[in-house]
């Protein structure tokens, strides 16, 4: 580490105190940011677990209705109830203390079915169940994806260390300030 040159005497002492106060303020801000991010991480992890359970339940229900529709009306009746165009979803993003996280998905429009006449009510229920399963899968973490990006490769809560283009993690910078820089300056 390079040595910091400071003015001699009383001016140097005041200069060092201001720098120390700035470092302590930065450490306090990083501590607050870390607490907020850890609370948000726990909330997202809980949301991910709930979304994954809801996704599994909705897929099971959709498959049940698909089987019923196939038994009652055959494949042709089931295909008639399926929308012609794919469903479009839009995900709203939120920012928490400078970290961007995915929000809940919203459907854009309602695609029309292939045919106005549908074989049985089971076809309508199957299409609605698959629609609900699609929305459940698009929830953050619903389809087994979303929340995984908040966990490190080693399974810890800490993000990977700095690399090319990667910002320094708040707890890493806070630890460096609290353990090395600030105590040395005192």
Features:
186 residues, mainly alpha, two-stranded antiparallel ribbon, 3 helices
Please explain how this structure is put together:
This protein is mainly alpha-helical and 186 residues long. It is 58% helix and 10% strand. The protein is built from three helices and two strands; from the N terminus they run αββαα. It has helices at 9-81, 121-138, 170-185, and strands at 88-96, 99-108. The chain has a two-stranded antiparallel ribbon. A hairpin with a 2-residue loop joins strand 1 (88-96) and strand 2 (99-108). The longest helix has 73 residues, at 9-81. The chain is rod-shaped. Residues 145-168 have low confidence and may be disordered.
List the helices and strands and how they pair.
Blueprint: H1 9-81, E1 88-96, E2 99-108, H2 121-138, H3 170-185
Largest sheet: 2 strands, antiparallel
Shape: rod-shaped
Averaged pLDDT, please? 75
Could you say which structural class the secondary elements and strand pairing correspond to?
mainly alpha
Task: Give the terminus-to-terminus CA distance.
Answer: 17 Å
Radius of gyration: 27 Å
Strand content: 5-15%
> How are the strands of the largest sheet arranged?
1-2
Q: What helical percentage do the residues reach? A: 55-70%
Order of helices and strands: HEEHH
Number of helices: 3
Number-wise, the strands total 2
Q: Unreliable segments (pLDDT under 50, ≥5 consecutive)? A: 145-168
């Amino acid at each position: 580490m390079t040595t910091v040159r400071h003015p001699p005497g009383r001016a140097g002492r005041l200069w060092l105190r201001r720098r120390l106060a700035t470092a302590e303020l930065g450490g306090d801000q990083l501590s607050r940011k870390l607490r907020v991010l850890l609370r948000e991480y726990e909330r997202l992890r809980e949301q991910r677990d709930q979304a994954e359970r809801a996704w599994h339940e909705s897929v099971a229900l959709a498959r049940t209705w698909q089987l019923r529709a196939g038994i009652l009306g055959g494949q042709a009746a089931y295909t008639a109830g399926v929308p012609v165009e794919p469903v479009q979803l839009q995900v709203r993003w939120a920012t928490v203390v400078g970290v961007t996280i995915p929000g809940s998905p919203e459907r854009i429009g309602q695609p029309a079915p292939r045919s106005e006449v549908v074989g049985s009510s089971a076809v309508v229920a199957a299409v609605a169940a698959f629609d609900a399963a699609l929305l459940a899968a698009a929830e953050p973490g619903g389809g087994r994806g979303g929340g995984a990006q908040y966990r490190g490769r080693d399974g810890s809560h800490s993000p990977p260390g700095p690399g090319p283009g990667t910002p320094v993690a708040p707890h890493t910078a806070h630890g460096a300030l609290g353990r090395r820089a600030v105590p040395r300056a005192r």
